[in-house]
Structures are given as C-alpha cells and as structure tokens.
Amino acid sequence: MKVKKSQTQSSRSGLQFPVGRVKRYLKKSRYAERIASGAPVYLSAVLEYLTAEILELAGNAARDNKKTRVIPRHLQLAIRNDEELNILLSNVTIAQGGVLPNIHHILLPKNSKKSEEAEGEAESTGGKGKKRSTIVFD
Q: What is the DSSP letter of 106?
C-alpha cells in the first residue's frame, strides 16, 4: 500500500502564489462568515497575473536602460507607461520612483530651419502651401 504524498493547494492549481496563505488571510480578515474553496485560488491567480505583468514591463524598462536589476524607477516607468496599470495604480506613490520624463511642447525651442523650408515650399507652389495665421493681442 503506497502512501499518497501531500500536495499544496498552489501546486494543485498550478500557481506560484500561496493559495493556503491567501485563504488564511481571507478567513482571518473576516471579509465574510464563510469563504468558498475556489475564492483563494482565484485571488491567488489574479495576484500572480498582476505581479507577472508588472515585472515583465519593469524588466523591459530595465533592459531599455541597460540594467540587469529592476529598481523602483523601472517599476514606476512600467506602470505609468501602461494605460490600464496606470489607472489601477493611480493613487499609488512608489518610493524612489521619480516621474515620467515630460517636457511641455510650448517649452521646446522652435526650429527656424523647418519653418523657413515650409515658407519656401509655399512660395514655390504658388502660395498653395499651408498658411500660418497670426493672432494679435491689443
């Protein structure tokens, strides 16, 4: 007679996140009188998916910056550049995360060469190019 080796709930469900611990926390926190057996499995799967998604994007950000380790800055860049994660974590402040690089377009210098070329094209096409309107404030 062979003795069955015990399996964790995480290995039964094929997850890395601890299903038993999540179940214990759900029961201890008293969210409800009773907890269904599938609830901690589902919650663990959701947490594992979100973690994997964030870490994948942060790893890509680290690789873009030629680094091998993920630091809080990479997490910040990954979350704020992803539309859905940014909405989900909009109220979250990441310590040592910094801010997204952003320069308002008004503050950028005007390219005089491009504007001269555009005016030259307008003259060569008989004035059919784009015309610029000027606004005068009194």
A: T
CA distance 73 to 99: 8
Residue-level pLDDT at 1: 75
- Give residue 40's Cα distance to chain centre: 25
Report how far apart, in Å, the C-alpha atoms of 130 and of each of 64, 106, 113, 117 are: 39, 21, 16, 12
Q: Using an 8 Å Cβ cutoff, are 23 and 8 in contact?
A: no
Return the closest-CA partner of residue 53 out of 84, 22, 90. 84
d(CA 74, CA 59): 7
Chain-centroid distance of CA 61 in Å reads: 10
pTM summary value: 0.72
Could you say which residues of the chain have pLDDT below 70? 112-138
Helix count and strand count (H, E) for the chain: 6, 0
Both tokens assigned to 75 = 């997490």
Give the model's pLDDT for residue 21.
96
Count Cβ atoms below 10 Å from residue 75 Cβ, excluding itself. Answer: 20
